[in-house]
Amino acid sequence: VDEHGNAPSHRLAPWQESAAKKLMTQELSCPPTLQALAAACGMSANSFARAFRGSTGLSPRQWLISFRIAQAQEMLADSAVPLSAIALDCGFCDQSHFTRTFTQMVGKTPAVWRREARHRDTPAPAGWGEQDWRKRPLYAAE
After folding, report:
1. Minimal CA–CA distance to 90: which of 116, 106, 70?
2. Which one-letter DSSP state was computed for residue 32?
C-alpha cells in the first residue's frame, strides 16, 4: 500500500474494493460503467479491471452477475414473487435472460431451484423416515 492508501496495481485496497462493490450493487438495473467504477477508485479503467480481478478472482461483470444470481436465490427461497419480477429486481432485462443466466451458473432453472429450496426448508412429516412405503399397498382396501 502506498502513501495514498492504494494497493499495488494487481489488487484493490480494501476501501477501493468496498467502494466498487457498493456502487455495483446500489442499482442493479442500472450498473455503473467500468469507467465510473475506476474513477471512484482513483484508477484507470484497465488498471481497475486488472486489480478487481486480482482482488476477487472475477472481472467486475462476472462479480456483478454472481451477485445478481445470489440475490435472486435469496428471493426465490424466501418469497412467492413471480420469476419475471425477480428477474427485473435483480437487474436482468427480462425473465428469459434471467433464466438462461441462472441455469448456466447454477445448473438448474430458477423454478426448479425454487422448488428444491422450498423442499429443503420444509421439514418432513413426523415419522416420515420411519415408514417403509414400499411395503404399503398402493390403494388401501376399505
Report:
1. 70
2. P
SS3 for 76-123 is HHHCCCCHHHHHHHCCCCCHHHHHHHHHHHHCCCHHHHHHHHHHHHCC
Residue carrying the nine cell digits 418469497 = 79
pTM strictly above 0.85: no
Nearest to 63 by CA among 53, 74, 72, 73: 53
**What is the Cα–Cα distance from 58 to 5, expressed in whole angstroms?**
22
Alpha carbons 28 and 70: distance in angstroms, whole number: 12
68 within 8 A of 28, measured Cβ to Cβ? yes
CB 53 within 8 A of CB 46: no
| Environment class of 62 (CB within 10 Å of its CB; exposed 0-12, middle 13-18, buried 19+) | middle
Q: What is the pLDDT along the chain (142 residues), one digit of tens a residue?
A: 554 555 455 899 999 999 999 999 998 889 999 999 999 999 999 999 999 999 999 999 999 999 999 999 999 999 899 999 999 999 999 999 999 999 999 999 999 999 999 887 555 444 444 444 334 333 334 3
